[in-house]
Design brief:
The complex is a heterodimer of chains A (329) and B (349).
Chain A: H1 2-28, H2 34-44, H3 51-61, H4 67-81, E1 86-87, E2 92-93, H5 94-129, H6 134-148, H7 151-164, H8 185-222, H9 225-232, H10 237-243, H11 245-255, H12 257-275, H13 280-289, H14 293-321, H15 323-328
Antiparallel strand pairs in A: 1-2
Helix pairs in contact in A: 1-14, 5-6, 5-8, 5-12, 5-14, 6-8, 7-8, 7-12, 8-11, 8-12, 11-14, 12-14, 13-14
Chain B: E1 6-19, E2 22-35, E3 39-43, H1 50-58, E4 65-77, E5 93-97, H2 106-111, E6 116-119, H3 133-145, H4 149-162, H5 168-171, H6 181-193, E7 199-203, H7 211-228, E8 231-236, H8 239-245, E9 248-253, E10 256-262, H9 263-268, H10 273-280, H11 289-296, E11 333-337, E12 340-343
Parallel strand pairs in B: 3-8, 3-9, 6-7, 7-8
Antiparallel strand pairs in B: 1-2, 1-4, 4-5, 9-10, 10-12, 11-12
Classes of the chains: A mainly alpha (329), B alpha/beta (349).
The structure holds adenosine-5'-diphosphate and magnesium ion.
Chain lengths: 329, 349
């Protein structure tokens, strides 16, 4: 198992290098850069542009150099000093801007994953074991709604209800007084209170699909001979259900954890813009639009790296639940 | 081996599958008894309802199947603690109507595995691919004998040793796919025997195995039976195996028992035309190929299960059918000689 994990981690390294090259290059593709557009903006507003200062900034950000030199400077800065570069728009080091937002994005993704598994798995198991019953039909109807209605619409509907009927403020992830406050227990509790609504919204669109998957996989497993033998051994229905077929039917969930986390991160981007949440989404969008390249590049790199890490987690989980994989590796 | 105590009695059992295309009468009026210590062979072409009969006894008929009528009774010896077995001739017999029990209820679950155990057809598919064989065997022991993990594991290893599993201590944690077919089947047999059942239902336990392994497993089952004294209901389509394994046999055709007899009588004086045809279809050494081919198969095929023929269900394929009788009348089940019953109009008294 340990050797297996080490090997998977080693495979990650070239993947990450490739991702960093691609994301950095992609950012250089549009014409112009942040400083030229910034200077142009200043000029149209009739302000003086200090060429001296601009040049020193150019020097500092390494602009005008060949792209591989710029790339090398950026990457070596990250590796040796943990320096992700400077955000030009925010006039702050990138590292001061991204970690909290990244943390919130990940928290939201994991949270919504837990919500949707918590709903989809028991419902899917019920649906499969009570095939063609009324609750089974209801759940099918629900899952079609969940798949069919786009998430942003759910966001608006739920936001409306939460605000008007429940009196909960769903915009943002914190109450007013905590927004710029340092992290404390109270701030954390406050965040959890705000997190569940966006978590639920992001969960909805995935829950529906996961419910269908659970039901279909479990129906496939339920008539397998190993389930029959477990029954013939005298195990109670409930015990044998959770020990054998559900366990096997869950494998696809574990093997796609990484992918579904990545999927959720993109749903969260959209959601955060609608609900104005302080996650990576809105900031990344802005950085891309204003060509704030170190900020945008760092986001791209980190979010892609998360996907890679997610895949690693998938593999480890799968090896954990399916000993065949563990032993063969 | 046969004792005079009845273990299972099956009376007029009917198990149907209700499909969209129609009703499949998989088991359609089956009667037979199993005695303590008896080895009863159940033979018939595939699809004749052997497995469904076994599942009915265990009450694990899958949906959309259901026992629609009939009675299955288990005569359970009340005091079954091994040390007292045999020392107490006046054991209490408890009569349990399995057909009246809730198939998922506690009482039925406590009978499965302890009184009646199953050795299925495909050992690979019948074992969970993601649990070790030790786990799957110890589970039964913990469930029925209420012992802790440690004891259960020790007993698992003993059981594996009993069924001739090489190096049980080292291999108890193997996964099914790491074992050969023969070893998997041994593991499944260990699992079935670990709570000393009174009846072992072996549903074609060697069909998935090669001939050499089959011979080993058959020898193992015979030895285990003489050691442990349980009854075996041995399901097979192979009459050669019946000759080796069983004392008595029932022959099934389209959901019914058409003949019941001792194995000797089955081979020397078969009564039902279907049984006779089955016996003729066994290839024999020294037979000429042309002759063999002519004898090899029974004329025609099993009819469509949705449309069971009127009268005797075998009449469309029968050489000895009587026009106007066999296609009209239901054959009665008659006892031609003591212990030799047949369902055929030729033997109508
Ligand atoms: N799960 C099921 N669903 C529908 N029909 C079934 C099912 N199991 C068995 N049958 C039908 O019952 C009949 C008897 O099957 P079975 O007892 O498995 O035959 P065999 O004698 O080969 O063991 C067959 O016609 C089969 O089609
Ligand atoms: Mg069968």
């Amino acid at each position: 198992m340990f050797a297996y994990i080490v090997r998977r981690v080693l495979i990650m390294i070239p993947t990450l290098i490739l991702i960093s090259i691609v994301s950095f290059t992609a950012l250089q593709l549009p014409p112009g850069d942040y400083l030229t557009s910034y200077a142009a903006q200043l000029r149209t507003m009739g302000e003086q542009v200090d060429e001296e200062a601009l040049n020193s900034l150019r020097e500092r950000y390494g602009m005008g150099q060949p792209i591989y030199v710029q790339y090398w400077k950026w990457v070596s800065g990250i590796i040796t000093r943990g320096d992700w570069g400077q955000s030009m728009e925010w006039q702050k080091p990138v590292k001061e801007l991204i970690w909290e937002r990244l943390g919130l994005t990940v928290a939201l993704a994991v949270f919504s994953l837990l919500i949707s598994w918590g709903i989809a798995i028991p419902m899917g198991v019920y649906s499969a074991t009570h095939q063609y019953s009324i609750p089974d039909y209801l759940m099918s109807a629900f899952s079609f709604l969940g798949v069919g209605v786009p998430a942003f619409l759910w966001a608006l509907i739920i936001m409306y209800f939460a605000q008007t009927k429940l009196g909960i403020n769903v915009g943002g992830l914190f109450s007013e007084k905590y927004i710029n406050a340092p992290w404390t227990w109270d701030k954390f509790v406050d965040m959890l209170k705000h997190l569940w609504i966006p978590g639920l919204i992001v969960a909805i669109e995935n829950t529906a699909g996961e419910l269908r998957t659970t039901r279909a996989n479990l129906l496939d497993e339920l008539n397998k001979p190993y389930v029959e033998l477990a029954r013939a051994k005298g195990l109670s229905e409930r015990k044998l259900l959770w020990k054998y077929p559900v366990r096997v039917a869950m494998n696809p969930f574990f093997s796609t954890v990484g992918w579904s986390l990545a999927n959720r991160i993109s749903s969260i981007t959209l959601m955060s813009i609608v609900l104005s949440l302080q996650t990576t989404g809105p900031m990344q969008l802005r950085a891309l639009m204003s060509q704030d390249m170190y900020l945008a590049g760092s986001f791209l790199l980190l979010l892609s790296a998360l996907t890679v890490v997610g895949t690693l987690i998938s593999d480890i989980l799968l090896a954990w639940v399916d000993p065949r994989i563990r032993l063969e590796a | 081996m046969k004792q005079d105590q009845l273990l299972i009695s099956v009376k007029d059992l009917r198990t149907y599958f209700f499909l969209d295309e129609g009703t499949v009468r998989a088991v359609d009026g089956v009667d037979f008894n199993i005695w303590y210590g008896q080895t009863l062979g159940v033979v018939g072409e595939s699809g004749c309802g052997k497995s469904v009969t076994a599942r009915s006894i265990l009450r694990i008929v899958p949906r959309p199947g259901r026992i629609v009528s009939g009675e299955i009774t288990l005569y359970r010896k009340c005091d079954r603690s091994p040390s007292l077995r045999g020392e107490n001739p006046s054991q209490q017999i408890e009569e349990i109507k399995l057909t009246d029990l809730d198939p998922t209820g506690r009482e039925m679950c406590s009978i499965r595995g302890t009184e009646i155990a199953l050795v299925p057809q495909e050992p690979m598919a019948s074992l969970s691919p993601v649990h070790s064989i030790g786990n799957q065997i110890a589970e039964v022991i913990m469930l029925h004998q209420r012992v802790d993990k440690h004891t259960a594991r020790a007993r698992t290893i003993e059981m594996l040793e009993l069924v001739g599993f090489p190096k049980p201590k080292e291999r108890v944690d193997s996964l099914p796919h790491q074992l050969s077919g023969g070893l998997r089947q041994r593991a499944v047999i260990a699992m079935a025997l670990c709570c000393h059942p009174s009846l072992l239902i072996a549903d074609e336990p060697t069909t998935a195995l090669d001939v050499t392994t089959e011979a080993q497993i058959l020898r193992l089952l015979r030895n285990l039976q003489s050691e442990l004294g349980m009854a075996i209901m041995y399901i097979t389509h192979n009459l050669g195996v019946v000759a080796q394994m069983c004392e008595d046999v029932i022959v099934m055709y389209m959901g019914r028992v058409v003949e019941e007899t001792s194995v000797d009588a089955l081979f020397h004086s078969p009564l039902h035309p279907y049984t006779q045809a089955l016996l003729r279809s066994i290839p024999r050494l020294g037979q000429k190929t042309r002759e063999r081919r002519r004898l090899e198969s029974i004329r025609g095929t099993v009819p469509d299960p949705y449309a069971i023929p009127k009268g005797c269900s075998f009449h469309p394929r029968c050489h000895q059918r009587i026009r106007g009788v066999c296609d009209q009348q239901e054959p009665p089940y008659v006892e031609v000689e003591p212990g030799h019953k047949v369902r055929c109009l030729l033997y109508q008294p």
